[in-house]
Specification:
Elements: E1 3-7, E2 10-12, E3 18-25, E4 34-39, E5 46-51, E6 58-60, E7 68-73, E8 78-83, E9 92-98, E10 102-103, E11 107-111
Parallel strand pairs: 2-11
Antiparallel strand pairs: 1-3, 3-8, 4-5, 4-9, 5-6, 7-8, 9-10, 9-11
Amino acid sequence: QVQLVESGGGLVQPGGSLRLSCVASGFTFSNVVMSWYRQAPGKERELVARIGSTGSITTYADSGKGRFTISRDNAKNTVYLQMNSLKPEDTAMYYCNVFASIFGQGTQVTVSS
């Protein structure tokens, strides 16, 4: 059974940083693309970043380019999202994703002074 467990969210001031983690199980982690999505209240879920199976290829939504970094540790079955220079508009529930339609339970990120 595929399982994704996110952690690392919280309340942070504008300009601050957070590192999200997602531990995966139930599939061969090192073989698959992993993604982070987010959904703000009243908005659709949107892609934040994606990383290839080896970690050598990454893509980012324009909203996070230059501020967010996705990475993975295949030995730990974990994908990370380092978020720097956070803005209030980054406030959302952040979800780990695999196989297009499988999401974790999410971790809340709130950026506010």
